Amino acid sequence: MRSLTRLVGLLGSSAALLLAEGNEAGGGSLQGWKWANFLLLAAGLGYLIGKNAGPFFEARSAAISKDITESEKIRRDAEARAGEVDRRLAHLEADIAALRAESQREAQSETERLAAHAAAEIAKIQAHSTNEIAAAQKAARMDLRRYSGDLAVQLAEQKIRARMTPATQDYLVRGFVRDLQ
């Protein structure tokens, strides 16, 4: 506030001095008023600039400082991410080789599991077919026995009929009646 009062006083005295010089020279009063007007305008502009320029430039400096700090942080983050990407790219070949090895192990394991499953299924099928063959053999033997028994009975019947005479029939009937009594 003190410096503002001094500035106004200085400008006022300068304007008075210019007016006094203009009046002495005669006819130059208009020139003095122009200089006084200019000095008042310059003082007003100086006051406004002095009042507003400091906070404006201070705020602008703070914003620029903040932007620089944020830019530094963003740059560091970007560099860290780029480093991580570079590290991943460096290990990419090893990761791909590990994935290939793992997939080959899994494929081998799956092949072995399928082979074991197929062997178990083959064993089941063989056991089932062995049981079916045994059952078919047993049924065929029984059919063969039945057929051979039927053939033996038919053959015996034919032999008996061929040997059977009325006298033999009569003898057999009498023996049966005797056994009943």
> Which series of helices and strands comes N to C?
HHHH
Structural class: mainly alpha
Q: Outline the low-pLDDT stretches.
A: none
Largest sheet: none
Q: Can you tag this structure with a few keywords?
A:
181 residues; mainly alpha; 0% strand; rod-shaped
Q: Care to describe what's here?
A:
With 181 residues, the chain is an all-alpha fold. It has a domain at 1-79. Helices cover 96% and strands 0% of the residues. The protein contains 4 helices and no strands. It has helices at residues 2-25, 29-90, 92-163, 166-180. Helix 1 runs antiparallel to helix 2. The chain is rod-shaped, with a radius of gyration of 66 Å.
Task: Give a summary of the structure in a few sentences.
The protein has 4 helices and no strands. With 181 residues, it is mostly helical.
Itemize the secondary structure elements and their pairings.
Elements: H1 2-25, H2 29-90, H3 92-163, H4 166-180
Helix pairs in contact: 1-2
